[in-house]
């Protein structure tokens, strides 16, 4: 069986300003699966082109991860409905033994909304997010199969301008070999709503505290790399390790 990318875009969520903003972003990820994928990475395929960061969403956001994580360009999308980026071990993606590896084994994903975020005060956004993700529509948005009953939310809270969600997704189309329980964070970067995830592996699980630390580090890298970009600004000469994704038709 050939490798395949399991990818689902959750769009068109009903109701209110928050739902309108969330409807433009991909709350579920794209995960690679299949026996031809790299060993020990739960089905992530090799890719020789593995930049350390990627510029998406009309050149308003740069997705970059902690040391050892690189972009899987074959699983990355950037189009009118938003952007999705998958990151994994640089060594696994390139097949090079001397390439860096993350300290903690995991898959990172990031989605960026195609339109500006919700606006308003941060404390109000946290309340609206909590209300949304306890609703049937919010739970369905978190599920890879789009079914609210596939998701159980264990914890939700806001800290350091990150809205954190700890959840279990029992969808049947979850990535092979990946943990079904993981953390997500939602935050704004240059007026775009970003959701980031850290997903561990069934056979190489990372503990809860470490997963949250990696997620906070991931969000910090995205914020730092995107800091110099204005919402309508583009970079003409990206650094050699940076990839600028072209919009899909």
Structural class: alpha+beta
Number of strands: 13
**Percentage of helical residues?**
10-25%
Gyration radius over CA: 17 Å
The tally of structural domains comes to 1
The main pleated sheet reads as: 8 strands, antiparallel
Order of helices and strands: EHEEEEEEHEHHEEEEHE
What integer is the average pLDDT?
77
Strand fraction = 25-35%
What is the end-to-end distance? 29 Å
Principal-axes shape call: globular
Describe the 3D structure:
With 249 residues, the protein is an alpha+beta fold. The protein has one domain (12-229). Helix content is 20%, strand content 31%. Strands 5, 6, 7, 8, 9, 10, 11 and 12 form an 8-stranded antiparallel beta sheet that branches. It has a 3-stranded mixed beta sheet with strand order 4-3-13. The chain is globular. Mean pLDDT is 77; it is low at 1-47, 233-242 and 244-249.
Short description:
The protein has 249 residues and is α+β, with helices and mostly antiparallel strands.
Show the helix and strand layout.
Layout (H helix, E strand, L loop, with lengths): L3 E4 L8 H7 L7 E4 L19 E4 L4 E4 L4 E3 L5 E3 L2 E8 H5 L12 E10 L5 H12 L2 H7 L8 E9 L2 E8 L11 E9 L2 E8 L8 H19 L15 E3 L5
Parallel strand pairs: 3-13
Antiparallel strand pairs: 1-2, 3-4, 5-7, 6-7, 7-8, 8-12, 9-10, 10-11, 11-12
